[in-house]
Write the structure tokens for this entry.
Amino acid sequence: MAATVETRPPGLRAARGRAPENARRRRRGLAAWGFALPFTLLFAVFMLVPVASSLYMAFTDMRGADLKTPFAVNFVGLDNFAAALTDPKFLQAAGNTLYFVGVAMPLTLAIALLLAALLNSGLVWFRSVFRVGFYAPVVTSIVAVAVVWRFLLQPDFGLVNSLLGVIGVEGPRWLTDPTWAMPALIVMATWRNVGFSMVILLAGLQGIPRDLYEASALDGAGAVRTFRSVTVPLLRPTLLFCAVITGIGYLQFFEEPFVMTQGGPLGATNSVAYEIFNQFGFGNYGLSAAMSYILFVAIVILSFLQFRLLRPKS
Amino acid sequence: MTTTSLPVASTGATPPGEAPRPDRRRRLTPRAIVLNVALLVGLVASFGPLLWMLVSSVKPEGEIRQFPPTLLPEQWTTANYTELFASLDFPRFFLNSVVVALAVTVGAVLFSAMVGYALAKIDFPGRRLLFALVMATLMVPGMVTFVPLFVLVANLDLINTYAALILPFLAAPFGVFLMRQFMLDVPDELLDAARVDGAGEFRTFFRIVLPQAKPALATLGILTFLGSWNNFLWPLVAVQSADMYTLPVALALYSTGQNTVQYGLLVAGATVIVLPILVVFLFLQRHIVQGVATTGIK
């Protein structure tokens, strides 16, 4: 500071003004780091370190026995990735996960959009009752509702098959039938998650200016035409958000098979996330970390594709 | 809701708190009837499983399996809850869940608000890097980090501790993002006025900024509490002794272990997890639904 003052004698007054200014800036910078410090420390330890070390672990042969000596392990290059991608169990789990996401995500979004459009139509009598009822499953613990659904889907006296029996349909043995176990999980996941997208889409619908609909009606467009050429284009960013969030969640589905099927029958509901967890349980940390990375790449790719598909067309 | 600011028309039959749309009166047209009946069927499908759970938890084992199910138990029983809380260690699991969820909520909301404020309103060295790192980790799911996190926590000798269940969730990138977005809208004039009055940075934050941020704090608090209460994977991994189980971990392990066919017991266990959240949700539903909707739109 003193040097600055000496080299510019004529600007003495300005420099005196700057010195407290600099001190204040420094004080504010310190205060800012004071605010940021608790988060930054925890973030560095419990987020940045694990993210970095998962990349490290994926390329080593680390096992459960190395838990306390994580640096005394061998680098194995891409072996873990090769092992994962040639393991029939992992490939089956990957197929199951794609099946789950590929069916459950469009189904969830379609039902959510339908419900949101109906609730927004102005013909509904008790809108807030419906909104609460459809949203309620979203706040529930997946583990808890998976236990409940396991009983509802019980083949002999469960509520679902009993109801099907009333209309003369003999329901399948849902969770123990390799064909029907995955559809059962998809129905349950859709049931639980529809409300989330519905609420967001409803808010999006309410943000569409009413005069666009009036203009569309003046042009003689019917309800379906209006929906396709006014509602859907304007709702694109909202749909994109719902698709990305739902897709990321579904790609990691884990609790449902853990509680309802243990991945069975015959591996029909084993998911990538569940396989990662199992390999971790077997002590294959390196392999498990490599599988996590494959899942993460899948999440990034899915999000990217959705951005391409649903971005606003200009 | 966008409609709440409109003048309330004098239609008597509006549900409480819901502003009617002045331009569209509630009419008994055939279309409206079909639509509402269809939605009602959907509502039964949506809320039915939860209702079945609540009612079954106070029924004896045989009645749970009856068809058609009775809407009210023919024979009320508290045996399921008695077993849950007397024979099994559910009071302890409940306590664990409450302690963890409260600590995570208070800590994550406070730390997120602090760093969100700094990122939004103070120009400090390292600000851009910190924000970039937060944004980069926003999408990293727990499924990707739980193995190295376990190794880290094991080496810190924190397995089977509350610290293991709480600390990793205090650094929540989503919370920081949400808070920063909100803090950007806090007027600079307000902060300048506080500084002119001689308030220090910390005083300004706690006296001026935090009260302004109440809606965002509430939204983040509710979402954080829900996430922590329902969290499963990490507590399953980080805790191995039964006295540290949280409710979802305990229920999942009992339901896949030797109690797998005790319907009444397990349904009561599910109710213990879901009911407190459901009650809170019904009281705060307007707030929760709007909070979710606005964070989604932003």
Q: What stands out?
A: Chain B has 14 helices and no strands.
